[in-house]
Amino acid sequence: MNKFSRIGFIFAAAGSAVGLGNIWKFPYVTGEFGGGAFVLVYLLCIVFIGLVVFIAESFLGQSSEVNVSSTFIKVSKSKNSNWKYGGFMVFAGLIILSFYSVVLGWILNYIVLSFGNLPNSAELAGSGFNQLVSEDIGLQIVFHSIVALITIFIVLRGIKEGIEKINLILMPLLGIILFGLLAYALSLDSFSKAVSFMFSANWSKIDENALLAALGQAFFTLSLGIGTIMTYSASLPKNENFIKSSFYVAIVDTSIAIIAGLIIFSFLFEAGAQSSAGPGLVFISLPVIFGQWGTLGNIIAISFFSALLFAGITSAVSMIEPVLMLFIERFNMTRKKAVIICGSIFYLLGIIALLSMSNAFKDSLTFFGKNAFDWMDFITSSVSMPIAAIVTCLFLGFFVDKQTIQNKFTQHVSIGMFNIWYVLVKYIVPLAITILLLNKLGVIQ
Ligand code: PHE
Predict the structure, then answer these.
(1) Closest CA to ligand 1's atom 6
(2) Which residue segments constitute the domains of the chain, with CATH numbers given?
């Protein structure tokens, strides 16, 4: 049986969770929402919502040992075959992967650039990034293709030989690079400023948008709502403690987000740059700072972008695996055929995403004021992932036999802990997500 080893599972699940969401997105969103207070809200979302759903997905996967669609049928009380539609959530993975691969392509481009002269002014760095995104279509396609090929190559080899192996290599490397960068950040005067920015509460920017951003970030960063954790847990050995491993993954993921934030803000403050630069933070602000540090700057730039690449690749493979598993098991496909089909879909969608930001094609690929890239992000992070999380919670709360769940939980935790989790999963979390979702979609203002 093609299963993870215990440690392989933890590495793979942590590899999935730790990604661009931690090192690219978390710092810039924190910067935009003013620091400390946002971090606190985010941590609450991780503990009371993210972790609850993570444990739910992990329970479902480990209990069923099959793909997401069959899981819903197998675990439900009624065994009603309509539950197979629960499997739809996995297709969001292909959409996320398409634009994720484009961003990973940019990172690859920045690794190459880091070997040469880095920009010496913010204008130059800004125009360099804009040039890449709006003019250099060919270059972006080349890098997107390389990322797509790497991803495909890994998943073709399967869970044990592909996904587990790459995580056992890249995750330690990522850890080493991040600790090196953290050590350097610690030696800078501005480290203490970064600490106080991230940990002293500034409530002035905390509004409903901040709450939504924190929740969305909690889902995205823990890889929830597309069946990744369910699918990986289906390959978790039967008697492993899925609750403990969920805690480990959440702790590693959160620590890395915080460490990435401390590193990036120390660098930014050292150079007197703004913390609220938005998505361009790592592509525009950081290269200028690295450029001021001479050769050491080149080394730090290469390390930093490699860390992003490693973190991103281990997440990319986890976005496509749930769809592959579903195609292989439900449609009796070979892994190779499933990879070819899914690989082609996300590759082509990625090209649409990158074209939609280019000057040449943006007009024809913008719909209702949003380009295709932003639509793909919106439909997944703001619509399908939260809906999938609600479905998962309600499914467990109302359509699965409580005693069965309880029996499995109480092998690992006390009945009291189980009851707390059960109330959260059945009522609180779905309600909270629904309110936030409706709010985001503009249904309630
Ligand atoms: N968790 C990953 C990140 O933070 C993204 C991801 C989302 C991976 C959904 C798998 C599934 O970058």
Answers:
(1) 223
(2) 6-440 (1.20.1740.10)
